[in-house]
Description:
Layout lengths: L8 E2 L8 E11 L5 E11 L9 E4 L4 E7 L2 E2 L5 E4 L2 E4 L7 E9 L9 E5 L2 E5 L19 E10 L5 E4 L2 E7 L5 E12 L6 E4 L1 E9 L5 E9 L7 H18 L7 E7 L6 E2 L4 E5 L12 H16 L8 E2 L5 H19 L2 H21 L10 E2 L8 H34 L3 E2 L1 H12 L8 H4 L5 E9 L4 E9 L14 E8 L15 E3 L2 E4 L3 E7 L6 E4 L8 E4 L3 H10 L3 H24 L8 H12 L5 H7 L5 H8 L5 H18 L1 H10 L10 H17 L7 H11 L3 H13 L5 H12 L3 H12 L6 H8 L10 H14 L1 H4 L5 H16 L1 H8 L10 H15 L6 H11 L1
Parallel strand pairs: 2-12, 18-19, 19-21, 22-24, 25-32
Antiparallel strand pairs: 1-23, 2-3, 3-9, 4-8, 5-6, 5-9, 7-8, 10-11, 12-15, 13-16, 14-15, 17-18, 20-21, 25-26, 26-30, 27-29, 27-31, 28-29
The structure holds arginine and zinc ion.
Zinc ion binds next to helix 3.
Amino acid sequence: MRSETAPAIRLEDYQPPVYRIEKVHLTVKLDPAETEVVATLSVARQADVQAGTPLVLDGDELSLRELKLNGEVLPDDGYTVSPDKLEIHAPPSKPFDLKITTQINPEANTKLMGLYRSSGTYCTQCEAEGFRRITYFLDRPDVLAIYTTRVEAPKNDCPVLLANGNLMEKGDIDGTDRHYALWHDPHPKPAYLFALVAGNLAQVPDRFTTASDKKVDLNIYVEHGNEGLCSWAMDSLKRSMKWDEDVFGREYDLDVFNIVAVSDFNMGAMENKGLNIFNDKYVLADPETATDQDYANIEAVIAHEYFHNWTGNRITCRDWFQLCLKEGLTVFRDQEFTSDMRSRPVKRITDVRLLKTHQFPEDAGPLAHPVRPRVYHEINNFYTATVYEKGAEVVRMLKTVLGDEGFHKGLDLYFDRHDGEATTIEAFLTCFEDTTGTDLSQFALWYEQAGTPVVSVASAYDADRQTYSLSLSQEIPPVPGQRSSKPAVIPLRFGLLGPDGKDMHATSASGIKISGDVLLMEKSRHEITFSGISSQPVMSLLRAFSAPVRIDQKFATADLQFLAARDNDPFNRWQAVQSLAMQELVRLTGTLRHGKLGAPADGVVSVFGAVLNDQNLDPALKALALTLPSEADIAQEIGKNVDPDAILAARKQLRQAIARQFHGALRAAALEFAPRGDYSPDAETAGKRALSNRAAYYYAVSNTEDAAQFTWDRFSSADNMTDRLAGLMLLVHDHMPGETAALDLYLSRHEKSSLAMDKWFMVQATAPGDGTLATIKSLFSHPLYDATNPNRVRALLQSFATGNATQFARPDGAGFELVAESVLEIDKRNPQVASRLLTSFRSWRALDANRCALAESALMKISSCEDLSRDSRDIIDRTLQ
Length: 881
Ligand code: ARG
Ligand code: ZN
């Protein structure tokens, strides 16, 4: 027997709430196992709703202790209650107060939703539907209330007591060892933004003065001993606050902004009003334990959560179908912030790689859904790359289509018109229509249609007529529940390169709208003619990745080489190198599958040499250009009948060919670009380190005499985590001499830092080779493995399932089995972590027949489980459909 699938929730069934909850007064008396929550709700019937209509409040695993209406205990026949629902049968027709007392057990809350305890600290996570695990409520984003929160706890255990908003009062509770703090948030907000924290935490204070000269107290709260790891996060916060004023005209709106770092957290971070709660990996950093990538992530996530204060909190979502309204827009904003703080092309390439590795496969598999879905069974499963990253791409296209000025005018109107509201994508788009007069009805399809459009390109040059003609067509391959699709608006940034490498003047053409350097596709086919083109050009299309589409264009190798060397759009230069490598890797994979060993083409290998020796290329860009397409990217390109072993082997072949041909230059680059002096996480220095480590990555397989020693030395003499981890990865993943010694050395150096130890688990889980499965099984009983800590589970299992294709998809099925068993085990404790792990099967149908059958049987085993969570049931049903 299998567990039931949760009922479908549909956008078309949306109904406004029948009651408003205008004010919430909460008293939370904290206790590890018996926390009492007294919630007083000021409730009012909506004007158009009939008097006496029942009030139905959401709950989840709650137990009711007392219920009073306007101060009177409610008679038993006046209500019905269960752990997940409280119904008041016939509420008064006038506004009334409902006082609900519930009791909850934070210590036993292993789902990490609602109020829970992590390493002795009480904290909350309420998005999407966690508040109903604290008290009965209208737990939906369109119910906005003003919250006052009184937190009570023993003084010794919990010297720090925090909630949303501004602190009103703090004091001892007479005659006890307890104290209290009273917090008030004047901004109406939905319940998912509620937060409370209590514990024995260290406070790292700072201050920010807003553009209108308002002083804001900033605090980061961390476990004692971690105070020294907060300076980068604090610096990032202050830069975010300033940037949002400068670029979007948004100021902060409370007296205090608090951030708390906790070590057990299901996701990255949460934008609770005035009290952001973070996974500690996005707060804590020093050169000893954090990589350049960690520093960059911290900066981006701190910014992201801060930017939510306007895009998410001041203006929130009417319902969870509109999740991209806040997430897509906020990701776009944090991407822009990083582009301004660092290098715009490097950021763009990094984001596109992420999109192609995470979102494109999602959009091409059984879990595909539109940026704004129309149906869900479990909302927690929709915090996806599609909603976040593709959602950000759609906002970026909006900016491209409307131009900077039109875009910012529309956004200003949005902030103005919808401040304090819970709203929709339609309302958002209308702001841009109203300010620019553009009809966005076709553009809106980007929110409605799942799947990645494929743009097919064919071109011809007519020397006699001096014309260049271009045929463009677009199509979305079928995705679950969407057989046909309508043509989307696709902005294609382009340049026509002349033989000198310069862009030709091509600002007019027949057959399509052009504005500046953007071709605007609006139909399924465009036949375009550029005239006055005096010599055969090379088309550089989709510059800066101006739309989340795939381009199907046959390129001559010489043209790609030309673009790789000459395109003045850095993104497309990078793309040209990638396309060359990809073509070659697909070819080599095919050859290997037929049992042969082809040699990588000289023309491709030499392009890598040219990139390496290009003196004018920024080191960070060079490092990216020298990065081969990932195994997952190659698998995606091949699309069906995928054999991960052949892909791994092909990739290794190309890597070795490059290494052997350019070993001298690689060794020199590894040394030359290694920054000297004190560590600094700034983008320029990090870019040099990236290049140095990329060169070392090749040199390690160069077959030269000192390659092994050289790699070991880099690892063992590293004075920062970026270099140490890069060295460790090479030693372990390439099974080089010193592999075990390096792991031991790393362990003894970092066993006290759980963030550094996550990397140790991750490196071992992602090592190719037959021994990895046994290693993982033995790591399950390592004293530092903790199956209840989401970061640790992700480090060992998620990284295995998503970053070790050959071992996850082993031809004997043992990799699938290991993950399936882990999903079942974790699901009992923490459904969100389990269902996320389960999504690693999403591309199973693309595998070869044997692996496909093995994946299916592992999935069937999960599906037949009787007590699967809603979260995992939803993913398994869709994965198998
Ligand atoms: N709103 C949070 C953020 O984007 C993420 C919350 C994730 N919630 C969830 N149920 N998965 O920063
Ligand atoms: Zn977010």
